[in-house]
Amino acid sequence: MMSHKHAAASRLLGKCLALAGLAAIALAPLPVQAQSKYPDRPVRVILPFGAGGVADITTRLVAEKLGDKLGQRFVVENNPGAGGVAAARAVMQSPADGYTLAVFSNGTAISVNLFKSLPFDPVKDFVPVSAMGYFDLIFVTNANGPYKTLGDFMKAAKEKPGALNVGTIAAGSTQNLGAELFKSVTGLDFVIVPFKTSGDVLVGLERDDVQMGTEFYAALRGGLDAKKFIPVAVSGLKRGEYLPDAPTVKEAGNVDFEATSWNAIFAKAGTPPEIVATLNKALNEVLADPEVRKKALEMGIEARGSTPQELEARLKSDIAKWGKVIDTAKIEKR
């Protein structure tokens, strides 16, 4: 039979073990989800374009609002370079934790087929989060010239094969490939003339070196406001709110044509789905904000989010679409 002394010692030992167990539970690391809510520190957003452009301005606008909504700063870092390679590498070299994000565009889809050996795969190495905005190419003519409508230009191109010129920026740019797609779809014979800058395209249009140009609204806005140019068509499937009187190419030319540009947020492959979901929800709410929509529209951009699945489908579709255009136009790979 146990003595009173031994029984008391046994009870004391039991209490100590129980307390030790509670202490161990209290000190045990909590699951990641319980430890912190994403984001709990600033988030980097890597942009493959220089400062001051449309993509930079819109990304900063969205990043600021995203920071307000999620309680942490979203810091935009400009990392320009051919094919978006430098920006993509910066994200790929970071952990897949949602704290380093990439901005991709239809230019990313073009790069897949434009470069001989792109050192990243936007489909396999990244996961889509949400689109940020969509914007169209504008087909413009000189207001003092004879082509007041897209139909006028198309009629003249049929009557004088090879005589008309269309100005764009560099070969392989969205503007250039948009013109190449138009040429392919219509079967028209005209010369596509690549210029160094958007400003050079517009000077060429004013001097009648080219009879039509393809550019984005932001670069054209001053000339359109001054009535120097006529927006004979937009490249999307519907008219833009910023140019409601300009018909689509499909309307004006009676051809099956669509070329929509976009900017979107992607994360490194392996980023936890719950973080992607948090970002997607916040982005869609920010992009529905009237102030954001108004400011984006001033630059010819329709601020609109998407599901990750919609964005993935758009990326894959554009890779295939622009790959065919590049092959048809025999554009030299870089």
Automatic annotation (TrEMBL):
- Signal peptide residues are 1-34
Q: Which UniProt keywords apply?
A: Receptor, Signal
Keyword Signal on this protein?
yes
Q: Does the keyword Signal apply?
A: yes
Superkingdom: Bacteria
Q: Which InterPro entries match?
A: BUG (IPR005064), Bug_dom1 (IPR042100)
Q: Which family does it belong to?
A: Belongs to the UPF0065 (bug) family.
The protein's name: Tripartite tricarboxylate transporter receptor protein
Starting at the broadest rank, the lineage of the source organism is: Bacteria, Pseudomonadati, Pseudomonadota, Alphaproteobacteria, Hyphomicrobiales
